[in-house]
């Protein structure tokens, strides 16, 4: 239960903390859209699609607003809730533990276990010397 609660807390904090980092890495900064970034390419494509302008409420406009001013309190709460649920689900998954190694049967040879004495090198023959 504690593992699940810790995973939920980490998931919520990670979700809220990752948004500004990811948006900044994409080029949506507080000073505007960074030149030669993914954000600049998105803005260019949106402007071409809309005949030269960026429409209010579009994806590019929303991401730039979040990049410049950050998320609202209600958006942070929603994002933290979703991150917590995902973190709790991932923290409770059985794939987080390592799978057990299959046991070899007693009559089967095991890997990397000596099976008696090592093979002997071939004998040298005097007949084949030239």
UniProtKB/TrEMBL annotation:
Entry protein name: Interferon alpha inducible protein 27 like 2
Annotated family: Belongs to the IFI6/IFI27 family.
Localization annotation: Membrane
Region annotation Disordered: where it falls in the sequence: 93-130
Membrane topology summary: Multi-pass membrane protein
Pfam family, one: Ifi-6-16
PANTHER family membership: INTERFERON ALPHA-INDUCIBLE PROTEIN 27, INTERFERON ALPHA-INDUCIBLE PROTEIN 27-LIKE PROTEIN 2
UniProt-listed InterPro entries: IFI6/IFI27-like, IFI6/IFI27-like_sf
MF (Gene Ontology): molecular adaptor activity
Presence of the UniProt keyword Iron-sulfur in the record: no
Keywords, in A-Z order: Apoptosis, Membrane, Transmembrane, Transmembrane helix
GO terms, biological process: intrinsic apoptotic signaling pathway
Highest taxon, organism lineage: Eukaryota
Gene Ontology CC: mitochondrial membrane
């Amino acid at each position: 239960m504690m593992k699940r609660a810790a995973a939920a807390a980490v998931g919520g904090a990670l979700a809220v903390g990752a948004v500004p980092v990811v948006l900044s890495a994409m080029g949506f900064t507080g000073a505007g859209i960074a030149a030669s970034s993914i954000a600049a390419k998105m803005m260019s494509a949106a402007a071409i699609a809309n005949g030269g302008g960026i429409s209010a409420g579009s994806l590019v406009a929303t991401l730039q607003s979040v990049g410049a001013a950050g998320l609202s309190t209600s958006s942070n709460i929603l994002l933290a809730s979703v991150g917590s649920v995902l973190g709790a689900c991932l923290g409770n998954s059985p794939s987080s533990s390592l799978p057990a190694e299959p046991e070899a049967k007693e009559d089967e040879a095991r890997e990397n276990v000596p099976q008696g004495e090592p093979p002997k090198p071939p004998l040298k023959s005097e007949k084949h010397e030239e």
